[in-house]
Specification:
The chain has 212 residues and is mainly beta. It has a single domain, classed as Crystallins (Gamma-B Crystallin, domain 1). The longest helix has 8 residues. It is globular and about 40 Å long. About 13% of the residues have low confidence. The chain binds calcium ion (2 copies).
Length: 212
């Protein structure tokens, strides 16, 4: 099942501007207290095209990646041990031709450790939010190639992703990801990174995500 719509209130811009000063590596205070998983029961795996704001949500992660790659990657898998996309999937996500219509730039996870408990079992419910854009990122990280702020808020299908990300995987298609505490992209939580299994003091705080 899937839904097609433009996410209301989502401001998503492709940017070619000079970045502000890069934030420091990680926020400081200790982990936030655990959070209740009481959100909607619909599609838990959403894909946002950051230049248009068009969002679709799906029952399975695999479907969300198929959508985020414009149909190119149809068999995406999350590792049962690490929770991140497995090596085969990573190679496929990075292996598109330069003329591909859409590139995955980052995957957000609702829980720390990529939605996995230490024994590898999934948190319940486990939500993901995949971001994509029409071109790969440029190598310098002195700029901002993509921005999503505020984040998807669709409690009818998933969760309000603002202040609800605990881990992320980027590093796809030459992109690194950084995050900010506030929707105006201030308040550094983490600088440009390929991934973070646990934002620790930055858990459940990001309202602006950028890629370069
Ligand atoms: Ca915040
Ligand atoms: Ca760049």
């Amino acid at each position: 099942m899937r839904r097609i719509r433009i996410a209301g209130g989502l401001v998503a811009l492709a940017l070619a501007l000079t970045a502000a000063v890069a934030p420091s590596a990680t926020a400081t205070s200790g982990p936030a207290p655990d959070k209740a998983a009481t959100a909607a029961t619909g599609e838990r795996h959403c894909a946002v095209e950051v230049t248009t704001g068009v969002t679709e949500c799906f029952d399975t992660f695999r479907e969300s990646i198929e959508h985020a790659t414009a149909g190119r990657v149809t068999d995406a898998r999350l590792s049962a041990t690490t929770g991140t996309v497995d090596g085969t999937t990573t190679a496929k996500l990075n292996g598109g031709p330069s003329t591909a219509a859409e590139f995955v730039i980052g995957i957000q996870y609702y829980w720390q450790d990529y939605n996995r408990h230490p024994d590898g079992t999934l948190h319940t419910p486990a939500y993901t939010l995949t971001h994509s854009g029409p071109v790969t990122c440029t190598s310098p990280t002195s700029d901002v190639d993509y921005r999503s702020a505020p984040l998807l808020n669709d409690t009818g299908h998933t969760v309000d992703w603002n202040n609800n990300i605990r881990s992320f995987q980027s590093g796809f298609n030459n992109c690194l990801q950084r995050m900010w505490d506030f929707s105006n992209c201030t308040g550094p939580l983490i600088g440009y990174s390929a991934a973070s299994p646990d934002l620790t003091g930055g858990r459940d705080r990001a309202e602006c995500v950028e890629w370069s």
